[in-house]
Amino acid sequence: MTAIDTFRQETREWLETNCPASMREPVRSFEDYYMGGRNPEIAHPDQKSWCDRMAERGWTVPHWPKAYGGGGLAGEELRVLREEMARINARKPLDSFGISMLGPALLQFGTEEQKREHLPPICRGEIRWCQGYSEPGAGSDLASLQTRAEDQGDHYLINGQKVWTSYADKADWIFCLVRTDNSGPKHEGISFLLFDMDQPGVTTRPIRLISGASPFCETFFDDARAEKRNLVGEVGKGWTIAKYLLTHEREMISGFGAATGRPLGEQALEFIGADSDGRLASSSLRQAIAQYQLDAHCFARTMARAGDEVKAGQGLGAASSMFKYYGTELNKRRNELNLAVGGEPALGWDGDVYHGGQTARAWLRSKGNSIEGGTSEVQLNIVAKRVLGLPDA
Amino acid sequence: MTLVLNEEQLMLRDAAAGFLGDRATVAHLRALRDRDDEVGYEPAVWREMAGMGWTGIAIGEQYGGLGYGYTGLGVVLEQAGRHLSPSPLQAAVLVGATVITELASGAQKEQWLPAIAAGERIVTLALQERRHHAPLQTAMKATRVGDHYVLDGSKCLVLDAHVADAFIVVARLDGHHADHHGLSAFLVEAGSEGLQIERRSVVDSRNAGALILRDVQVPEACCLGAPGEAWPGLERALDMINIGLAAELLGLATEAFERTVAYLQERKQFGRVIGSFQGLQHRAAVLFAELELARSVVLDGLRAIDAGEELPLRASAAKAKLCQVAELATNEGIQLHGGIGMTDEYDIGFFIKRARVLQHLYGDSHYHLDRFAALSGF
């Protein structure tokens, strides 16, 4: 038996023994994702034990180095673990911004000490992170941010306001863009700081969205304190890290464009009916759905091609903006069509008869996809300038 | 198989770009048009293409081809689309050889494929009869008389008709109008009695013509495959052909786009290059995104042919998307070039003209979007 076969067999046996039956059920709602933290939100008691068991083996983040709490897996072994988890429909034990965003940035830009301090608690699901980027006066023009960090010797004092901070009210720590220098060009003088949210100088206030949900907060800093050792990268060079993270975020959001669930055409046929040739009775809606499904088909092929290109050693680069733009616009189109196909029940807002208004709420939420993580217009600016080489105005 | 070209395919692409960019360019097409050339392409260039093996690029090695598959052919067609290279590559290699490969018996393949692969003979498809692509509505009549067939009817938009050595004529042998059953394909030699070939002048300045068949007698051995059962093979061949045409449209649209972006970087108005205006930058960036999707769906189609996978949905997706993207790229090409884009002297007009002919051939975006929806079950 080869080493990889042995690994597969052991992995299979371990997962069989340790993955609770409840964690092999499909994810049905947002609460089914376990985000960890000091005061974790627990929809099912098995979520925490499943996370703990996986974390012990480093398998909450199997591709990170073992020294930082990861599994140290790469190539074949990583693939086998994913296949074996998929085989029994095992849920991901832990989802968090620590894993998807801060971790990659620390691995790239952090000091050894920072990695050893912050990565293991992310792997164990002990600390939940949030991202302090946008401000009331710094949206698309993110680099004009004004939250100040004053040098106090061994620490910084932070004053200012962030907005659109995802789950700030549930997070333990924040990775935050602050201005340490106001004298030069706006892209310089920005620093990347980490600090604890559990302190008197930090307050959060959830923002109610048009969808009724409140996934984002306003976050206020009034003499909040950050230790100097928690400055990532050089002082005033935080914009490089910010851009690196934005690329990650865009790739994540563009994944929304990948069609999931039941094909729209099939649903429409059930709700609206067919003509004598078996075609959807509304020819205009049929065309709109066909165009959406055609574009979604082409987008999925493009995601697959990008994967093949990365494997072949060709980078994605500024084209991540293209994916963010197209994926989010597609998702908005899909949600618009969901409403058209769904009819009256899709307009429902509350109550069991309307499934809690999930179609309408998802439709409203999708409007934010082409705004968050850089608007569609900003993505098109990036493609025009960095890919096509068109000059600044 | 992945959606990335391999070493061999990359070399082929570079070779095709080099050769066509030198010997078969828009300037050559313009010269052929301006002198009303009788042949419509440069026979010497065509012989060189045959010498490099391109005439047999997707034909199997047992029939004297290179066996590079349709991804290989697609790579060359994309470059032909970039340069608007005039040659019988589409008619003979993509269309003719594909239909024979999918429909013919072993003996018929032995007879025709090596000659096509060597570039010695041009066999083209005579399918369309009326305004639009509607293969099941074929009205050309085939009648069995003794040991031969008699064909009656007319065809249009036959690529390279006036220089072809033979035609694959699709006709209805029996069955009702629009039936899958009853369609047959016959190989008809150019010199056949009762066959009239008329060269037509089409907007792209490339070769196309019409056929009139009056009591044309065709020997029994010239019926491709089983009599009356041509549809499954023809449908598959048309899927392969449409994916190939999508590859040509990809090259055409990409070239039109790149020429347009270059113009945005050089043309000055209001004291600055017009490419610095955000209104134009966004239109270029949207087009870039559409072209990325277009490339993926073409590569996926070509790969699927070579992997022997199901084609109908992929082929209609590729053709529908590429028709739309090429239409957008050429329309934006004219508009963003402004007044100069309207002049015959400037090349961008050649791209929009060729695009519309390629779009129309074997079903446009409307035809294929409709088929895509039907194949998706609604």
TrEMBL record, chain A:
Tagged with keyword ATP-binding: no
GO molecular function, one term: flavin adenine dinucleotide binding
Domain Acyl-CoA dehydrogenase/oxidase N-terminal: 45-126
GO cellular-component term (any): plasma membrane
Domain Acyl-CoA oxidase/dehydrogenase middle: residue ranges: 130-223
All residue ranges annotated as the Acyl-CoA dehydrogenase/oxidase C-terminal domain in the record: 236-388
Matches recorded under SUPFAM superfamilies: Acyl-CoA dehydrogenase C-terminal domain-like (SSF47203), Acyl-CoA dehydrogenase NM domain-like (SSF56645)
Listed cofactors: FAD
Pfam families per UniProt: Acyl-CoA_dh_1 (PF00441), Acyl-CoA_dh_M (PF02770), Acyl-CoA_dh_N (PF02771)
Keywords: FAD, Flavoprotein, Oxidoreductase
Family: Belongs to the acyl-CoA dehydrogenase family.
Name listed for the protein in its UniProt record: Acyl-CoA dehydrogenase family protein
From TrEMBL, chain B:
Keywords: FAD, Flavoprotein, Oxidoreductase
Acyl-CoA oxidase/dehydrogenase middle domain span: 136-205
Cofactor(s) required, per the database record: FAD
Annotated ranges, domain Acyl-CoA dehydrogenase/oxidase C-terminal: 236-373
Acyl-CoA dehydrogenase/oxidase N-terminal domain ranges (all copies): 6-120
Source taxon at top rank: Bacteria
Statement: the UniProt record of this protein carries the keyword rRNA processing: no
CDD domains named among the record's database cross-references: ACAD
InterPro entries for the chain: Acyl-CoA_Oxase/DH_mid-dom, Acyl-CoA_Oxase/DH_mid-dom_sf, AcylCo_DH-like_C, AcylCo_DH/oxidase_C, AcylCoA_DH/ox_N, AcylCoA_DH/ox_N_sf, AcylCoA_DH/oxidase_NM_dom_sf
Family: Belongs to the acyl-CoA dehydrogenase family.
Protein name: Acyl-CoA dehydrogenase family protein
UniProt GO molecular function: acyl-CoA dehydrogenase activity; flavin adenine dinucleotide binding
